[in-house]
Design a protein that fits this description.
alpha/beta, 19 helices, binds 6-O-phosphono-alpha-D-glucopyranose
Length: 608
């Protein structure tokens, strides 16, 4: 949520800041801005809208080798030029970019006095005004201001009187330092740094750092030095190259067979017919001691968690519940020693997921993470976990990361199942099913022309339903999520059994109902739900893994059928998920939506 970039070094800052903002744009894209120390003055350029609006306003490049930039997702104040960051004090000595929320902004404004003129509606501007009232070194001035702030922040500050110094600080919003040759960078996400360096340092909450071209120093808020180790990034740049694909989302959909291979790589143990997950930090004895599992996440990560819950429960016969991380942490949850907690997050920075993790650990619970972003806050704070190895996901709506989460859950289910009652034979069959998944996804990708046609048929609809039972329900949830996120068609998911308890009142000839029909014991019951919709004149689109021979009734009843390969229940959510991703993608494209950056959303939600 909001992106920060900062640069000091020998190169011109402006192109690096703009390039960084381009990479960070997925974190928020309602306004952008940069401030650069140029000829002893701070020059600030900012504009409402996406980065290309700012770029179009730049007639002459700003010279200067030290600067900060920001891409915003509005919390306080509408997306306008004035509310865009950076914010400056009245004398233009300081410029500041801020991610997060200042909760005591009214108190701080009152402290500044009635005569202080604010030029924006943001909470962030108060920081620049407060800095102007401090004395001493820049880092001390920033520290004194931050000591008065209640809330969350990731900030970067430049000072006209310290021409090549940047001060950054973190409390709740990520800040990562990038170490270059005679240059230093900072950003809220590694994506903005990877083109310039592979050496990065993650700040922890309560840390403040001073960057100059020749290095950095990290301190705690009480001025004591914090000794940080740099970590080396793998090359991530290929993920930011869209190639010939029209959208990142499309690229990320079609690369899923390879992503599955990456997530599985080195983790299938054919000899013992189980999964090898060294990062869990759990011994065999710990695994059999688990009495219950709670899975926590937000958005698509939550839906992957719900599918994961079914996988684990059915294979390992451990009771598993998945719930929204934010709701969990606010209901004062009971934390049990024999419960395993699993947080799921692509970015590893989602505020609510992180807060839930901290709540569980604070109460002594053991937490595993299923995380994509290496070195992210969640990845660093969990007791153990599974890295997804899906590579950076650029498009705001999750596709390949969602699929990779499902694969990680399948591996965990296999491991837990094999540590209990799952036989070696069944274990081998599951391994075979997992190895077959890339091929099955390819088969679904081959359905693209038919799915594209279908999406054109229904893209005028105001509303759509997605229904499924038990294992099919999380699939329906993610299908509805994808469609609403990127096409803006109102889509709701319901357990098929719930349809008659309310939603059926909304079913008309204009309300397409996507029915998820796994070829399982509940198939006849799901077909009954189709009948109920048809009886009310609702168009039915069946998404099924049942062959025509297994159930001819589906084809008779449905207005259209998307038939995916028959596969086991562990990989079915991934296989069906890809079909629903294609449906959402083509609906969005045919409606002319901004596929990669849908309105009002952001990829990494680092505010509450
Ligand atoms: C945002 C994104 C969703 C994502 C969710 C959780 O809302 O728009 O696509 O599923 O955050 O993100 P995470 O990084 O924790 O998986």
């Amino acid at each position: 949520m909001c992106g920060i970039i900062a640069y000091t070094g020998k190169q011109l800052a402006m192109p690096i800041l703009l390039d960084g903002l381009r990479r960070l744009e997925y974190r928020g894209y309602d306004s952008t801005g940069i401030s650069i120390l140029s000829r002893k003055r701070i020059k600030t350029l900012k504009a409402a809208g996406k980065l290309n609006v700012l770029e179009s306003k730049i007639n002459n490049p700003v010279s200067g080798h030290c600067g900060i930039g920001h891409t915003r997702w509005a919390t306080h104040g509408a997306p306008t030029d004035e509310n865009a960051h950076p914010h400056t004090d009245p004398t233009y000595r300081f410029a500041v970019v801020h991610n997060g929320i200042i909760e005591n902004v009214d108190t701080l404004k009152a402290r500044l006095g009635k005569d202080t003129k604010f030029t924006s509606d943001t909470d962030s501007e108060v920081i620049a005004h407060m800095l102007a009232q401090q004395t001493g070194e820049l880092i001390d001035a920033v520290r004194q201001v931050l000591a008065q702030i209640v809330g969350t922040y990731g900030i970067a500050v430049i000072d006209q009187q310290n021409p090549s110094t940047i001060v950054v600080a973190r409390n709740g919003s990520p800040v990562i330092l990038g170490i270059g040759n005679d240059e230093m960078l900072a950003a809220s996400d590694m994506s903005a740094l990877s083109r310039y360096t592979d050496q990065v340092v993650h700040l922890d909450d309560g840390e403040i750092a001073q960057l100059t071209p020749d290095g950095f120093q990290v301190m705690h808020m009480d001025s004591s030095v914090s000794h940080k180790e740099a970590i080396t990034l793998n090359d991530q740049n290929a993920h930011y190259d869209r190639g010939a694909h029209p959208h990142y989302l499309y690229k990320e959909i079609v690369e899923q067979p390879d992503i599955v291979v990456q997530t599985l790589s080195g983790r299938l143990d054919d000899r013992f017919s189980t999964a090898r997950l060294g990062g869990l930090n759990l011994e065999a004895r710990d695994l059999i001691g688990i009495k219950r599992i709670t899975i926590l996440g937000c958005g698509s990560a939550l839906y992957a968690g719900m599918a994961g819950a079914s996988m684990i429960e059915s294979l390992a016969r451990i009771p598993v519940a998945a719930e929204p991380a934010a709701e969990f942490r606010y209901r004062n949850p009971v934390i049990e020693q024999d419960t395993l907690y699993i947080v799921v997050s692509q970015s590893g920075e989602t505020f609510d997921t992180l807060a839930a993790l901290r709540e569980v650990r604070r109460k002594g619970g053991f937490v595993l993470g299923i995380v994509n972003s290496v070195g992210s806050t969640i990845a660093r704070e969990v007791d153990g976990g599974i890295y997804m190895h899906a590579g950076p996901e650029v498009s705001v709506a999750s596709t390949k990361a969602y699929t990779s989460m499902l694969v990680a859950f399948a591996l965990l289910a296999l491991l837990l199942g094999r540590s209990r009652d799952v036989s070696p034979q069944r274990g081998s069959a599951i391994i075979k099913e997992l190895k077959q998944l890339p091929e099955n996804i390819r088969a679904v990708l081959a359905l693209e022309p038919a799915i594209a046609k279908l999406s054109e048929q229904y893209n005028k609809s105001q509303s759509a339903f997605f229904i499924g039972r038990t294992n099919g329900f999380p699939i329906a949830l993610e299908g509805a999520q994808k469609l609403k996120e990127i096409s803006y068609i109102h889509a709701e998911a319901y357990p098929a059994s719930e349809l008659k308890h309310g939603p059926l009142a909304l079913v008309t000839g204009e309300t397409p109902c996507f029915v998820v029909l796994p070829n399982d014991d509940l198939l006849p019951k799901s077909i009954s739900s189709m009948e109920e919709i048809k009886a009310r004149g609702g168009p039915v689109i069946a998404l099924t893994s049942a062959t025509q021979q297994a159930s001819s009734r589906i084809d008779t009843l449905a207005d259209a059928v998307i038939r995916v390969p028959e596969t086991g229940s562990l990989t079915l959510p991934a296989v069906m998920g890809v079909a629903l991703q294609l449906l959402a993608y083509h609906s969005a494209v045919s409606l002319g939506r901004d596929v990669d950056q849908p309105r009002n959303l952001a990829k990494s939600v680092t505010v509450e």
